[in-house]
Amino acid sequence: MADTLLSIQDLSIAYQVGALDVVAVSEASFDVPQGAIVGLVGESGCGKTTMARALTRVIADNARIAAGAMQFAGQDLAAMSEREMNNLRWRDISFIPQSAMNSLDPVYRVEYQILEVLRDRGGMSKQQARARAVELFEMVGIDPGRLRDFPHQFSGGMRQRAAIALALALNPKLVVADEPVTALDVIIQRQILDQLRSLQRDLGLSVIMVTHDISVVAYICDRTVVMYAGKVVENCDTATLLNEPLHPYTMGLKNAFPDLQSAGTGVLTPIAGSPPDLIDPPKGCRFAPRCPFATELCRSTEPPLTEAAADHHVACHRADEAATLREVAQDPATWGTAA
Amino acid sequence: MGDRRMTQPMIQMENAQLHYKIGNAISAMMGLPSTVKAVDGVTLTLNKGESVGLLGESGCGKTSMGRILVRLEEVTGGSARFDGQEIKDLSGDELRSFRSRSQMIFQNPFDAVNPRYSIRKTLEEPLANARIPRDEWHTRVIDALELVGLGDPKQFLERYPHQLSGGQLQRVVMARALILQPEFVVADEPVSMLDVSVRAGVLNVFRDVRDRLGLTAIYISHDLALVRYVCDRTIVMYLGRIMEDGPTEDIVHAPLHPYSQALVAAVPTPHVDQSHDPLPIGSGAPDPRNPPSGCVFRDRCPRAQTRCADEVPMPRPIGTRRVACHFAEE
């Protein structure tokens, strides 16, 4: 396997809300291999965006990294000073935010915003920066003649491409993309994913892709990390995750997803209930209240994230019975009716 | 659905147009386009009890179509009829009756309800508007909540929208649309704001209620996988026009229009082994202000020929479908 570029170890991130600490990411661990696309999947509120933002240390004022480490190329991002971190942003790690619509400043021409990064962060001359901006636009498939446009003159897909161009401006090693295709139409979505894939291959990038869409993960990600209520619950290569999931939550997600490749439409099965309140998470496994396979042990003791099979990490007490559970999970009756 | 007795048309559109005026005197002098053709020459019939998915990218006119059919917009040309009556000519009691018989379910449940109304009040408002006697309200509200699968409805009545999850609130929005016992429902991307694990539940309720009440329904979405789950018939739209119209399974497995082919190929599936071939479509986004001459899709079409620039292809029957392409047989 390729070298590890980023290693997240027991990372906890807490938001201070009044007198309370809400732990949005709790003791999360996973690795990002050099040159891989790693998907970070989960529902809203599972902590995936908080985690992604923490990698560039651009987190809300009331959030803090409470524990753990983020080893990136030999340095711990969590322990860095703001100044050291600043040197890393754009150059080594860059971020593609969820809504590209809001990531470009509407009152400046797109070119100005790209030149700003290239000159201030990359130390380029005006000439160099102009040439690089043209190169970047060609790379992401926008006509460089549009550089002088304002963001509102771009379509949604073009803005998303421009945000990708901006993220790639200084040849980073790691790109963190937060739902980069969620608000886009399927055709543009596919074209952007293809672009990301080919850029990742050509430039040897590593990418962390935050998404809620299993199909997007299946299409583009080499590895996938599944999060639930602030916890990493499963982490392995994408093929194994989709074909032989060990965690009941992953099994449930698969059942809830429409599949255009299937012969008939079948029945989509929701997971009853909703994710727990992180102010007061349940004792034991956080998925237990919605899990059809939960036992007394699950409700009382939290399962640790362990390597249940080679390079396949899961946090479930019943992981060794997964083959049987997978069969049972396919029956909609297992999941009861939706709340 | 599939009921042979119901072959009366509920919805009939004939060469329907919805053109919006844009720009001003100066832009007109500069020769810039002065209209956006959101819906441009759509002809379709929807029989009672039938469900159809309107599929297409943003700006293709699918939402405008839905809005015409519940009279949130009026056609600027051609005709759109509901149960035989021209929708834009309805007034007085006929309009009031139409307002109960046709309903819309909106995309974002958090925007679709008044945050300061309790769930009870949210559901009572349409009853008051439709002048339903007050002594029926309570039963109707409870029935509607039960219909959409909010078991134990009483616990929801005095709650406010922010106290509900997205999935629960979308069910309330659905209950509000159904409380006047409509015959026709337009659902505009009703699950796009919801999390995957609860999305399936809302879709199941929609399917179940529609079948139980024998509703005529339009389901608007850009996601073919969702449309397929809900509707037996699909209409693919591009820049205000119908490209393909036919049984959903036929379109999923063997799309005939080049645009449908690209749409089907673009949908990712939850399998690692799926095609990564480049899409059979030119890049760029459709510009509704300035569509190409002839076939509106021709500037992105891999099969376009000179005929496509000269002659607008009208939807014509091919087997079980209607397809608007000169070369659909190839």
Structure description:
The complex is a heterodimer of chains A (339) and B (330). Chain A has helices spanning 48-55, 82-88, 100-103, 110-121, 126-139, 156-168, 186-203, 214-220, 238-243, 248-255, 296-300, 322-329; strands spanning 4-17, 20-33, 37-41, 63-72, 75-76, 93-96, 174-178, 206-211, 223-228, 231-237, 306-309, 312-314. With 339 residues, chain A is α/β, with parallel strands linked by helices. Chain A has an eight-stranded mixed β-sheet, sandwiched between helices. In chain A, strands 2-1-4-5 form a four-stranded antiparallel β-sheet, covered by helices on one side. Chain B has a single domain (9-115, 183-323), classed as Rossmann fold (3-Layer(aba) Sandwich), CATH 3.40.50. By secondary structure, chain B is an alpha/beta fold. An eight-stranded mixed β-sheet of chain B has the order 6-7-8-3-9-10-12-11, sandwiched between helices. In chain B, strands 2-1-4-5 form a four-stranded antiparallel β-sheet, with helices on one face. The two termini of chain B are 32 Å apart.
